Amino acid sequence: MPSKSTLNYPIMLTTLLFFSFLLLILFSTIQFSSSLPSANDPMIKSGPDPFTNLLVAFRKWDAQVDCPRFKEKYHNWAGNGSGSFQMGGYSGGCGGEESRPKHVSVLVKGWTWVPDNMDSLYSCGCGLSCLWTKSSVLADSPDALLFETTTPPLQRRMGEPLRVYMDLEPGRRRSGREDIFVSYHAKDDVQSTYAGSFFHNNRNYYVSSQKNNDVLMYWSSSRCLVERNELAKKILGLVPTHSFGKCLNNVGGLDKGLTMYPPCVKDSSSSPKWWDHLHCVMSHYKFALAIENTMTESYVTEKLFYALDSGAVPIYFGAPNVMDFVPPHSIIDGSKFGSIEELASYVKALADDPVAYAEYHAWRRCGVVGNYGMTRATSLDTLPCRLCDAVSKRGGRNAKAL
């Protein structure tokens, strides 16, 4: 005769399996529920909500998301984490530098990227003063000579100015004659990004709160490179765009932006230049297409930063480590999409979603700049002090000849 425990075994096994099944269902439900997007997720939409007023979009984003949530999401954001910046400057303190020159003068000899209004006397860190000038009268005995369009002298003797060579083009070619090399990469002697305000001189900085809802994108290019034109043509064929430059112009002329947007006229008494109304015209569009001449690491040019400054969301094709140089969630990296069609679908959907679109501006409104602070800190704006610091560390004119 079977024992009582033997008779109860099937019942116990069935009960155990039943409760295990219930636990499995409960766990799966909890796990599935936790993976669902929040109702406040800016990408969750009840349907298209076309908008033209950027400030209205901001208010909707504030109501549904707001800065605390954005800050929490991106407080440790560091782009690609590829070490794209020099960590020099004055962060190491000023101790033990009594023997260094406390005043350095740099005479600019040949230039294309160096604007005239950089000429100044700068008060730098660690008690260093820096005279940056294009005048051989003001710097008759300079500590360094800066060359850009011409190459430095073949030789330098002790007591003569240090030779500085700057090349901001994608190739970053050293002259082979310089004591200090300036370019856009962290591996160069002194880094200079394209993000500084010196690249934006003589502009109409009016920024419109009204965004076009029929023509979504701005593009302007006057150097008609074959590969860039082909890429732009594909995008322009899928996303409604106004092209203002010489390449693929579809607005009827180079200065049509002034007719289309009268507030963008900077000075009605003088002939317009392509750059003086660029920011203003761009601000009327939800997106700005930025395609670099060359897809090279760390080569992130003014094309991208113009768009950020104008309040248009950049659609970017260029440096693979671009995320190191921009604020969190501020640009659309076109290379991350499987196809141009996929990119175009995303852009058009974003254009009809005021909350999701406003999130691309949250970095500015919430003060979450990420690596962008370093991008600006290593730009042309700070180059005089950083270069003078490098010259001072080498001893200026008293540096040993190589």
- The helix-and-strand class reads alpha/beta
Q: How large is the count of helical segments?
A: 12
Relative strand content: 5-15%
Strand order of the largest sheet: 2-3-1-4-5-6-7
Shape: globular
Order of SSEs: HHHEEEEEEEEHEHHEHEEHHHHH
Mean pLDDT: 86
Q: Unreliable stretches, pLDDT < 50, 5 or more residues?
A: 1-7, 23-44
How can the largest sheet be summarized? 7 strands, mixed
The radius of gyration computed from the alpha-carbon positions, rounded to a whole number of angstroms, is 28 Å
Q: Could you please describe the fold and organization of this structure?
A:
- By secondary structure, the protein is α/β, with parallel strands linked by helices.
Question: How do the strands and helices of this protein lay out in sequence?
Answer:
Blueprint (H helix, E strand, L loop, with lengths): L3 H32 L18 H11 L2 H8 L28 E8 L9 E4 L5 E5 L10 E4 L14 E5 L13 E4 L6 E2 L25 E3 L6 H11 L4 E3 L12 H5 L17 H5 L4 E5 L10 H9 L2 E5 L14 E2 L6 H12 L2 H6 L2 H5 L5 H6 L5 H11 L9
Parallel strand pairs: 1-3, 1-4, 4-5, 5-6, 6-7, 8-9, 8-10, 10-11, 11-12
Antiparallel strand pairs: 2-3
Which properties best describe this structure?
402 residues, seven-stranded mixed sheet, globular, disordered N terminus, alpha/beta, 12% strand, five-stranded parallel sheet, single chain
Briefly say what this structure is.
Pfam families: Glyco_transf_10. The chain is of the alpha/beta class and 402 residues long. The protein has helices at 4-35, 54-64, 67-74, 226-236, 256-260, 278-282, 302-310, 340-351, 354-359, 362-366, 372-377, 383-393, and strands at residues 103-110, 120-123, 129-133, 144-147, 162-166, 180-183, 190-191, 217-219, 241-243, 287-291, 313-317, 332-333.
